[in-house]
Amino acid sequence: MASSLPAFVARRRPDWESLEALLTRQRAGTLRLEELRTLDVLYRRAAADLAHAQTFHPGTDVHRFLNQLCARAYAAIYQPPRERWAALLAFFRQDFPRTLRAHGAFVAASAGLFLLGILLGAVVVLLEPRGAELLVPENMRDYISRKQLWTDGLLSVTPPGAVASGIATNNLTVTIVTFASGLLLGLGTVFVLLNNGVHLGSVAALCVHEGLGSKLFDFIAAHGPVELSIIVIAGGAGLRVGQTLIDPGELPRGQALMLRGRESVKLVLGCAPFLALIAVVEGFISPGDFFPWWVKTALGLALGALFWGYLLRAGSAGPRAGAEVG
Amino acid sequence: MSPPTSPSLDVATPERVSLSLPVAGIGYRCLAYLVDLALLFFFWVLAYFVFTLLVSDVVGFFTGLSGLVRTLMVLGVFATQWVYWTLCEVLMGGQTPGKRLVGIRVVRVDGSPVGVLESAVRNLVRVVDSFPLIYAVGCLSVLLTRQHRRLGDLLAGTLLVREERIDLDKYTATAAPSVALPSADVTARLGSGDVELILSFLARAPWLEPAARTRLGTRLVERYGGLDAQQHATLLAAPGGVESFLRARVQAER
Predict the structure, then answer these.
(1) Which has the higher per-residue pLDDT, B218 or A152?
(2) Exposure pattern of A44-62 as b/e (b: 16+ CB <10 Å)?
(3) CA 20 to 30 Å from A270, out of A197, A237, B171, B240?
(4) What is the C-alpha R_g of chain B?
(5) Neighbouring C-beta atoms of residue A157, cutoff 10 Å
(6) For residue A173, which residues of chain B lie inside 8 Å, CB to CB?
(7) pLDDT tens digits, one per residue of A254-311
(8) Given 3-state DSSP classes, what are the helix, strand and coil percentages for chain B, each rounded to the nearest 5?
(9) Taking a C-beta distance cutoff of 8 angstroms, is the pair B95, B106 a contact?
């Protein structure tokens, strides 16, 4: 028998209020075991009340109040497992490299696009040096025409710590943009990859044309391999998202996107600490003449080999994993 | 009462009850974003003044900074741009300070709280949603999707639900002792929709224009009172009589 609305509220309200109080304390984390049991019981009663309200008093404030109360309790009771340090460690030992290998084709496609951009930029500038006026930013052209690299002034003006953190955040931003623009049907990622490639290729070609090739190589050698790899990986993640949007397969587009989105963002998050490390190299070691060119080259090759060795080997045979990381 | 067209998130719990939560639309989202933006802005204004006071020259601010402070600044800019949102959402149960003020919350599409990964996804995609200006892509996406989700929400599998502050006192408030009023003739029972209508009128009456208050109260009495013309006239003549009568009518439903 349906009781009237005021009677229902008057009878059940004390329970709801104690459930609310318990939920507030649950969020603060000061709950004892027996209180936890009470919370469980009260939640079940509130759920029954919600069912009652749905049937006899739909659309009233009580109905909405109970919806909200049950949702709070539901969220508190059915919480997702907390990510802890162990999970973080497992992520870098297995999850990240495995995800990368699973998306190898996309990373390869991304690398192809990036290389295509570099080739385009380089060929245009080498065949027709005036093309640099179109492709290379003006302040860089000024530096190059004075037979200087824009990185020469880097350390004399700002302390290397600030340079490194600035580079790290800038590279992270580029990485995130490369990935996220994959949501524009993948076209965004394609554009960013080609654009960055053309930029890099044209600058390099201009430097070679002006006789600064060895200086540029000297600057890029130490950090280039890893940094460019990371951009390519982020591009692969972006292409993956774009591909899901165009061809979601058996699932509805929304669900496919959700599923693949979680996978691809792992690639971006996994790259973050390596970007920070490589920024330290780029800020402290790459500029200036303190280290001879062969040291930088050897360091760059070693870091690149370590990075890709880790990506291709780690986590492939269960818990045994190479933890050594560039 | 919310109009039936307003979108909601429906969750089937293991207790075999379906929850339905109201989804936050574009207005709530913009408001929360503006509050967060203002917070970050004031943080940077404050940081600027603290730094300038420490270095004690206003114009030569940037040249006077040490390497450490400059590093901190670069990291700070990065943190306010990228890390702030995810950190807040994970630590504050799906809310940033702006969202908490406005009363909205990020949840997964199944109603459970967001984890680190989902929050990271939806906030990394913020950069595409804000493309090209003033969140044009995000706003379009919010307006066009059924549950008002931006691209970041679509990719992460999250959405924003609204938290309403609902006062249950109006159901239990007792009628003030009134002078001899005609008592209601309780032949017809009130449905819960009718009770809700009368109670929401009573809850809002103190803030209504006097003319509108009298007009609405009279119409409710005509509809639910079941009084004859004589009783009706005495009721209208008594000050506050209409509302005491309506409250007594609802109380009689117990």
Answers:
(1) B218
(2) eebbebbbbbbebbeebbb
(3) A197
(4) 27
(5) 9
(6) 78, 81-82, 127
(7) 888 888 888 888 888 888 889 888 888 888 887 777 788 888 889 989 999 999 999 8
(8) 55, 10, 35
(9) yes
Tell me the sheet residues that pair with B23.
B161
In this complex, is the C-beta atom of B221 within 8 Å of any C-beta atom belonging to chain A? Answer: no
Q: Degrees (nearest 5) of the Cα angle B188, B194, B200? A: 140
pLDDT value at position A319? 47
Tell whether B1 is within 8 A of chain A (Cβ). yes
Other beta carbons within 10 Å of B191: 15
Is this prediction's ipTM beyond 0.85? no
Please, what is the end-to-end C-alpha distance for chain A in angstroms? 71
Backbone angles phi, psi at B108, to 5 degrees: -70, 165
Chain A interface test: which of B8, B68, B124 (most A C-beta within 10 Å): B124
Cβ–Cβ of A4/B195 closer than 8 Å? yes
Interface test with A, best of B16, B19, B20 (most A CBs within 10 A): B19
Residue A130's CB is within 10 A of a number of other CB atoms, namely: 8
Q: What is the mean pLDDT of chain A?
A: 84
Q: Inspect the interface and report whether the beta carbons of B192 and A4 lie closer than 8 Å.
A: yes
Tokens encoding A191: 């554009």
**Residue A230 exposed, middle or buried by CB count within 10 Å (0-12, 13-18, 19+):** buried
Domain range summary for chain B, segments of one domain joined by +: 8-162, 168-251
Average pLDDT over residues A113-126: 92
Question: Pick from B66, B112, B172: which is nearest to A80 by CB?
Answer: B112
DSSP B216: H
Residue B162: strand pairing partners: B104
d(CA A207, CA A320): 46
Contact B75 A62 (CB under 8 A): no
Answer yes or no: do B71 and A265 touch at CB < 8 A. no
* Lowest model confidence (mean pLDDT) among A256-260, B109-113, B233-237: B233-237
> For residue range A209-241, what is the model confidence (pLDDT) as tens digits?
888 888 888 888 888 889 999 999 999 999 999
- Record: contact B128-A169, CB cut-off 8 A: no
Chain-centre distance of CA B44, in angstroms? 28
Coil, strand or helix at A202: helix
Interval A141-153 mean pLDDT: 73
Span B134-166, pLDDT tens digits: 888 889 888 998 889 988 898 888 999 998 888
Residue B31 token pair: 């408001």
- Where do the DSSP E strands lie in A177-230? none
Contact between A304 and A225 (Cβ < 8 Å): yes
Angle at A149 between CA A143 and CA A154, to 5 degrees: 105
